Structure formats: structure tokens, C-alpha cells
Amino acid sequence: MLGIGFDIANAIFRVSGGGAPAGLTAPVLSRSSSAGAAPLTLDAALDSTIYAGFILRLQIDNNSDFSSPEQDITQIIDAASWAAGDMTLAGFTTPSGLYYARCRVETAPGDPAHNTVSGWSNTITDTIVSASTVLNSVTGTNKSSFVTVSGSPALAAIGTNGVGAACMVRANQTCTHKGQWEVTLTSAVSATIYIVVDDGSTNYNGGFVAPGQSNSLGVCLGISSSTVWSINRASTQLQSGSNTFASGTIISIVQDPTNGTLSFYVTNSGVTTQLGTTVSGNSSTFNTASIGFNTNNSASCNFGQSAFARTLGGGGNGLWLSDFSLPCWRYLVRQP
Amino acid sequence: MVKRLLSALLALFGASALVAQSFPQPPDVQAYVTVAPTYASGLTANVTNTGTPPAYAYQPADISSSQTGYVVVGAQPDNAGGFCTENGTTCTEAKFRSHADCTHTLKDDPIRNYGQPGLSHLHEFFGNRSVNSYSTYASERGRPASNAAGGILNGTGYWFPAPVKTNPFADGHDYAVRCDYAVIYYTTEPTNSPSLVRIPRGLRYVLGTNMDDPDDLIVKAEIAAANAQPGTGGRYSYESNGFTGWYCLNGSNVVGVVHGFLKASDNSDPWGGACTTGMQIYAEAHGPPCWDGQNLWSPGGYKHLRQKIRDNTLGRDVCPNNWYELPALIIKVMFTHQGFSDYGSWRLSSDDMAATNAGHSMRNGESFHTDWLGGWDDATFVEWQTNCLGVGSLGGTPHQCNDSVISSTKRLIMGETAPDGRSPQVDLVTTYGTSSASKMFMVPSSSVGPKTMHVHP
User: Fold this and answer.
1) From CA A188, how far away is CA B33, in angstroms rounded?
2) Taking the alpha carbons of A301, A302, A308, A312 in that order, is the dihedral positive or negative?
3) N or C: which end of chain B has fewer CB within 10 A?
């Protein structure tokens, strides 16, 4: 009897059996979602060396060398996904901040007909800020790297003097809406705390007030943790603090560009009091906000991604929230 | 085009109903050695071989799992549900009962079409999440992530022909009905336990309707040959190919009787309207317990195992003489439907191929079968075969193991969150059905690139 089977008809375009393993072409990766927007959707273009049933591997990292990917996901490209051209990747979450992405195709181990993996695709990169992003708490010093948005110069690192910036956000345009952010000290702080808000009217290196930094040029505000909160504008030197803030203390910063004011509050045991007096006469816009220490301390920052400990009076909202006009604070980025 | 080509060739050469196909040999098995089943003549009893099966010598090396968190450790009270000593009254079965969720669809079949992606009819897989046409024992253990109880401990691949609805949403696409979950039994008659041998690593086979011989003509011919022996006339009779049929389930109660199809030849509802929207429907297949002991695989996936046949003289079911007996699979695959107007339109992806090979029409759902490619962590595999099946070669005692219990102190995770994040490990609550495209598996017109995949969270 003849060996009749469906496979015979198909064999003319199939790769199977012996011979050298066939190569797999690296996918071409692109981003189909809008820049900076969540959820992140990628397009992996696969050529005719790939069939439904192969495995797609996606890596997401915040470093371009993918030395320690934050996400490394493999999933079979099943028939239904293939038919729809749409693949929900289990375990894949939209990254926050700067990311790099690449993918490749893999076969099942032991597949003798194909090379085990294709080459990696091209790498794509972008920066995403999501309202659901939870900013990290940073401990230590010399945290000199942070992300920024394209087209703007980077804020200067302040780690050279042993000062660490715990949280830092920045918009790619100046913001004209009243907003609030909070810092929760996650260690007791007895040294200087720097809180800096910048109007972006000049270069950011000058915008950030730091000890010994002489080229501060914009509207710069610094607060030390002394009993008397002195606020230095356009200053190159901050006062050292003598007070101690317990772990858990929450410092709130209210930025009101309309009135050109900055106000500071501290919350302990649920009781909120104002720190110092409202500073006025500032620039009408802000586009950076940061806090740092000159010793090893830690803090977590809430730019509006979760409920505030203190209610913001007189309107306004968290910097992060979507009721600000785009592309203002929606495009905040964070450190690191 | 393929079907037209096949039909033309059949017509040209006048081929019989049994269509010979070429089945690529997987790389991790020995070449198939024919072991013809024979049955004792006269009044001589058929012997179950309890020695060491030759295939053990070339079963693949164990690839164990070192990651913890896939077993719940704690006493399983005897006779309290999960772990019940076989006692002939309240606990009459020797079995290991577990569950798995469906995973994906592919036109792949690593048993019948090894290394031929996209060549098979559309299969729906459950258990291991990465089975494709290149899957082997080693690949399953290499990628053991699974929707079965026990997670990576059970990297076994199970698959069945997908029930397909033709263009149900008028979008030009066909859709496969996604199973709600599958119930998996490994079972035997308690009295058989001492004669069982353990299931070898690397074994793979197909249970249910024989796609190459849907009417089981080969088995029936073997029975006829056995009965033709001197003094043996009428001793043996055919019982089943293992596919017991489709059941309608209302809660935990079976509605009406079982049917071998989803729509009768006159296009009527087998259940006469009694299987209504909201009820489930399930297909059940029983695996063959008789193994030739030589082969981990056979071309087509059926030849190295056999269902038992009836020995009317001695009043029992028997395996071929001197074959081995394994714990037998039972698979129940559960689906949600919207009444006969819905399930009456389900056509198994294998029904047309079975009709071609049988030489006569096949009713919807009539060709149901399930494929099994073992991918168990071997220590776990041995544990439940010992403690639940009482496999004689392992020195075990039979128990009735429900709820994925594998011993008096261990249970595979089921409702728990798995260490790999799957939660729950097996979802017995979510139902899918056919009410929307998002609940079903879209069927591809082609499985070959080029293709652009939109990848998202």
C-alpha cells in the first residue's frame, strides 16, 4: 500500500528529519503602543522560518546590555495567538521608566531540526511613566544615575559629595498646576535633607542645590532639617540641620506655580503641621522635584501614585495624576 | 488542497479504508519493534508479564525537579476522602485522580507528527504549556511549566482534537471550544495491582478512537485470529476502543445517557433537548492498560498498547498473552455550552480525517481521542504509582487517591498559588463556552510565517 498521508503533501515546504539544523531568523521588534504610554505593546515580526508552536522569549531591562533583565519571559506561540496575531504574554508587565526590550524565538529543547534559538531582535527603548507605578525607596549614597526624557539635559548627579538623591522626578515641560508630593522618611534622619524644586528656566545642573555647588542659577530651594527651616533661594550652600526626624515622618511639599509659592508640611502620628512659612516669589513654573540626604538615609516618595497623608487644600492634586494637562507631570520620570 | 490530493490518490490507487501514513520517529525512542498481540488458545490462561520490560533499558534518563512549593505536605487522613485504603466496600478503586487546565492549541502532534509543525489537525493541549511538534520527554522536563496539579512536577503533555465551530462570529474565522478543565485518572482494578509494572519514562501513546483504524478493524482481526485457534472458538470478544462517549453534566449529575457523538446522523440532538445551556458536556476516553513492554512509541501511537478484550471462557478482561499491564489513563475533558444549537455544531478537528480513514462518515465528536506524552518528575511519578496504584513492581499498596493526593502525607498543589505565580494552579471554576471569541481559541488558516505578533501584558 502506498504511504499516503497528509505529511507527504506538506513535506515540500517543511523542515524535518536529518541534515544540518535550519536557522531561525531573528524577529524584528517594534513598539506599536504610543511612546511613553502604558500598556506597552510590542510587535515581533517573524519570517517564514517560524511556525506556530515555537517559543517567543521577551526580555525587558533598564540597561541596554540586558545583563540582568527585569523581565525574562518565554511563552509558546500557540495557534490561537498565531491566528489572531495577538499574544498576551503571561507575566509581562509594562515597565516603568526607561526600558530596553528585545526578543527572540526559541525551539523546544532537543529539536534537532532547528537551531535552538534565533538571534536576538533589534533592541527598542522608551520611557514609560504609569500612574500605577510605585516609586522605589532608595538607601545609600552616590545614586548618581537617573532617567530623563529626551531633549532635556540631565540633572547633575550630587553623589560626589556623599549626598544621595532619594527620589527625583522631572517633567519634560514646565508645569502650571498646583500639585503636591510627599516624602516618607524610612529611616531616622538627623542630618541635612535637601528638597529641591526647579523651574527649569536654566540648566538643571544649577537647578539642583548641593553643598559646594556654585553654579546654581535658577530658582532653587533648599530645606535643611534644622529647627528653623531656612529656605535659601539661589543659594549655593545649605544650612546643616540639628533636628532629628523619626522614621515614618512624612514631609509634604506643595507647589503652586500660579501663585509662585512653595509650602512645606510635616506629618507625625497623623498630625500635620506646616514647616516654616510659605515661600513666595518663585517662578511660576516647576518641572523638577527631588529630595536627597547628605548621609545614608532612605525615603519613599509619593508623587500622587497613592493616597496622600495630607489633604491638599485650595485645589490641586498630586503631581502624578492625570488631571494635569499633558504633557506636564504625566511625563515625570524617576530615579534611578 | 491536502484533502483533495489525498482523495485523488485514494481514488487513483483504490486504497482501502486503512490509510498508511508515515510517522516520523521521535529522537528519544528506539525504532519500533513489532510485538504482535496473541491470545492463549483452548482453556489456557493468558499470562500478564510481571518481569522487567525490555523498554526500561532505554527509557530516557530522569530529569528531576529541585524547585519546592509544588507539593502540600500534611497528613492525608485515611478513608477521609483524599487518601483511602482500598477496602472493597467504601473504597473500591485503585486510582490517582487529578486535574489540569487547558493551555494552548496547535496543529502539532509530537507523537504522530514529530518535527512537523502545523501538519496535524488542530489539537487542544492541557498540562504542559509548551508542547509542540518537537516535544519529547526531555523537552517537557526542560520546560515543565504546567497547568496541571503539581505544576512542574507534572510536565506531561496531554492533547485532544479541538471541537471547532465554523465562523461562529461571522468574522471569517473558525474557533475552537476551550475546555474548562480536564479530569485525569490513572487507575486499575485493585486486584490487578500486584501484576502492574510502573509506567516508564518517555512512554507516549494515544487513547480513544484510533485515527488510523477508526473501526478498530485491526484489533477485531486479532480477536478473530485468536478465536480461530483450535478449541478457542468464541472465547474472545471485542469490548471498546476506549472512547466511552460524550456525557451531559448538570452540576455533578449526568443527564440522560452517554452518546458517542454530539449530533445524530439525522441531525437531531442526542439528548433530546435535555442538555441545556449552563450544563457542561464532557468527553471521556479510557487508556489501554496492555503494553508490549518493548516500545515507548509506535508509528501512529497506538500499536504498542492495547485495550483489554473479553475472555468469555474465563469471565474476565485480558491483555495479550505475555504483555505487561500498566496503570490505565482515564481522561474527562469538560466544556461549557449553550445547548444543542451550540454543541450540535461542534465538529472535532479529527472527525473528517477519521471519516476518510474509516471510509464512511463520522458524526460530530465521534473521533475523540487523547494523546499522552509523559513528562512527570520521576520521584513524584513513582510516588503515586506506588501509593495509589499499588504497582506491584514498586511494592506498593493500592489506595483511592483523590484531589491529587500522592501519599498519606503529600498532595500536589491544586487551588494554591504556584511558586511560578500561576494562581490557582488549577482553575476548576472559570468556564469558557462559546459566547464570545475571547473565550475561545481562534483557528489559524496557516501555521507558517511570516507573521507579526502583537505582544502585550
Assistant:
1) 76
2) positive
3) N
* Of B28, B81, B23, B20, the residue nearest B59 (C-alpha): B28
Task: Tell me the pairing of strands B163-165 and B399-401.
Answer: unpaired
Spatial contact of B448 and A37, defined as CB atoms under 8 Å apart: no
- The residue of B134, B453, B454 whose CB has the most chain A CBs within 10 angstroms, and thus the best one to mutate to test that interface, is B453
Give Cα separations from A54 to A92, A209, B20, B449 (angstroms): 18, 54, 28, 11
B204-243 per-position pLDDT tens digit: 999 999 999 999 999 999 999 999 999 999 999 999 999 9
Cross-chain residue pair A80–B108, CB shorter than 8 Å: no
Alpha helices in B99-209 (DSSP H): 137-142
Q: Closest-CA residue in chain B for A14?
A: B116
Stretch 107-126 of chain B: residues touching chain A, C-beta under 8 Å:
107-108, 113, 115-119, 122
The cell for B364 is 460530530
Q: How far is A56 from chain B (nearest CA, A)?
A: 10
Q: Are residues A7 and B113, on separate chains, in Cβ contact within 8 Å?
A: yes
Residue with cell 512645606: A264
3-state secondary structure of B350: coil
Contact of A4 with chain B, judged by CB distance below 8 Å, is answered with yes
Q: Sort out which chain A residues have CB atoms less than 8 A from B211's CB and list them.
A: none
- Sequence-separated (6 or more) residues with CB below 8 Å from residue B174: B164, B165, B166, B167, B168, B442, B443
B4 three-state secondary structure: helix
Chain B CA closest to residue A110: B139
Is ipTM beyond 0.90?
Answer: no
User: How far, in Å, CA of B288 to CA of B302, rounded?
Assistant: 9
Residue with the three cell numbers 544615575: A145
Predicted confidence (pLDDT) per residue in B387-403, tens digit: 999 999 999 889 999 99
At B8, which helix (H) or strand (E)?
helix B2-13
Burial of B258 (0-12, 13-18, 19+ CB in 10 A): middle
> Amino acid identity of A139?
T
What one-character-per-residue DSSP string does A70-129 give?
SEEEEEE--HHHHHHTEEE-TT-----EEEEEEEEEEPPTT-SSB-SBPPP---EEEEE-
| Sequence-separated contacts (24+) of B88-93 with Cβ below 8 Å | B88/B190, B91/B399, B91/B400, B92/B190, B92/B400, B93/B187, B93/B190, B93/B400
The radius of gyration computed from the CA coordinates of chain B, to the nearest angstrom, equals 22
Grid coordinates representing A85 are 496575531
Tens digit of each residue's pLDDT (9 = 90 or more) over B304-343: 999 999 999 999 999 999 999 999 999 999 999 999 999 9
- Strand, coil or helix: B384: helix
Give chain B positions within 8 Å (CB) of A50.
448-451
Residues A257, A280: Cα–Cα separation, whole Å: 10
Q: Do A3 and B22 touch (CB under 8 A)?
A: yes
Query: What is the 8-class DSSP label of residue B226?
Result: H
**CA B280 from centroid of its chain's CA atoms:** 19
B177, closest residue in chain A (CA to CA): A80
CA distances (Å), origin A123, targets A25, A99, A130: 15, 10, 22
Q: Which cell goes with B60?
A: 530516557
Nearest-by-Cβ selection for A17 from B115, B133, B143: B115
Instruction: Inspect the interface and report whether the beta carbons of B455 and A103 lie closer than 8 Å.
Output: yes
Q: H helices within A181-290, ranges in order?
A: 204-207
A238-281 tens-digit pLDDT: 333 445 678 888 888 777 766 666 777 888 888 888 776 666 55
Name the helix (H) or strand (E) containing B159.
strand B157-161
Task: Report how far Cα A191 is from the mean position of its chain's Cα atoms.
Answer: 27
